User: Fold this.
Amino acid sequence: MEQLAKRAISGDEQAILSLLEHYEETLYRTAYAYLRNEQDALDAMQELAYRAFKKIHQVKEPAYINTWLVRVLINICLDIKKKRVEYVPDYAEPSYEQKTDFEILDMISGLSEQEQQVIFLKYVEQRTNKEIASVQNIPEGTVKSRVHHALKKLKLLFGQGGTD
Amino acid sequence: MTNPFDLEKLNKELNQINVPKEQLAKTRHRAFQKIQKEKQRRNNWRYYPVLAVTVALAFVLSVRFIPPFAETVKLVPGFTDVVPLITDDQEADEYEKLDIKETKNNLTLTIKEVMVDETGIKIRYSIEAPYNIAELFIRKVTILQNGKEIEGASSYGWAKDGTVKKYIEDTIFYNVEGKNLPNKKNFELQITFDDKEKTTFEIPFTIKNDVVKKQIYEIDQTISYEGQKLIIKDITIAPTSTRLRLTTDEGNSMQILNVGHVRIFNEQGERINTPENGLTGLNNLSYGEVIYLFESDAVNSADSLTIEIENMDVLPKDDNYVEVDFSKHIVLKQPSIGKAKFKISQGGIITIEEEEGAEVRLSHAIDADGKRFDMKSFSSTWNQVEYTYPTEMKAPVKIYFYDYPNTIFFKEKITVDK
Assistant:
């Protein structure tokens, strides 16, 4: 995988395609978790592929390539969500069924953008604080405090929702 | 209460999401196609003044191509008169040694040698640091004369190959736009790196030799398709580059916006102007001419040059713009051909939503007073492109096209024999 990542970073388009395909399940699920609709998630994935072709050379560490993809994808999803809210104010409100299906994911979507990003990177991507700090370009201490605050808020949200 | 750290449940929720594999393959394919189209276009794009004009010299691929015989071939004899002006090792001779060294913030820049002619400047330099600089980017390169920036476009940079580098040699290629460089010998190189300190070097240098004069070779061959004439005007040879100039016939009923491909081969069918070696174009046909640059040493070693032109995008001359009123956020008129969707927003912004496969690109604008304005910036995503124009333009404003999906398909070759 590291060889493939290296090739992708050096601009090998076939390697970029293979890499996107390799990670497509996790990436798509992340996009869907954010956007809750197949078309938007596919739009986000297409934009991710486009940005990967254009910007993947900026990745400094091949080992972090997946984390970079997730970070870019989350930014795209947040942009799509913002645009959606501009046009249809209530669209982002999850339905009752969705809430039941995606209990934890719904709670995560109640966090701030920064908190959502660290939670996805840490618990969906299962990245270490050090890795998150590296891709987010923030100190490790900031990652720790964001995770801490996010978890505290999640606990509170679960408490309020009374889901058990 | 459900534990928010319940990873198992989180994973279960994620696994409930069906992954539409086929659709995802399509999204990748579409993004890939778009990138390919953009790459092809990069060769023809005018350097917009506000854009960074860095051409990262990513890979040098050896592209071999044997041209088919069935194409139209015209022979233009007499190239010999010009080509001997450049001898085999002329480029090497044209470089003047300088070896000017400066150190700042742990970075050492050395201008090793320079080549200067009326059309451009090449600077061979090295950069050195006690740490890995393989991924150190250059933010900006400017060359000045008498304290004034020389108007032009530049290419520089190196490819990342995963190895650690503390010493890098590179060449800055600065193409002069507009007027020829005067025969003056004092210059200043300003170069800013993307390190923590954003280190900028300002290094004056003086050349001993005269600025080399360019040589122009007239070709004047016309390619005509569907009544629209494209003229292969001339080749300009100078040590830093060779330029091929195309113009359009004033009698054309259509405005030729853009040529699909311009490929130049030597007699062995090897392509000289590959996009990968950093060669590119200046201007565009909506300004009346387009200039393609390629390496002079490749011209020198060729016995003949075959210029292959493929396809052109056209629009009727009175229908080759979109007319807008930025203050009222409205589109007043757009080409009757095609269905591009334009959106006008505050701050001189025009956004084009693209249908799949459509390629609409904008060029300059002319306001109600007949004043010409270049765009300030543009950005693109996979399905839309956003351009920003100066806000001081007087409405209504006509914005002309650089590219529009209305193509005349053909392929023609002209061979210039040595």
Observations:
- Confidence is low (pLDDT under 50) at residues 41-92, 275-279 of chain B.
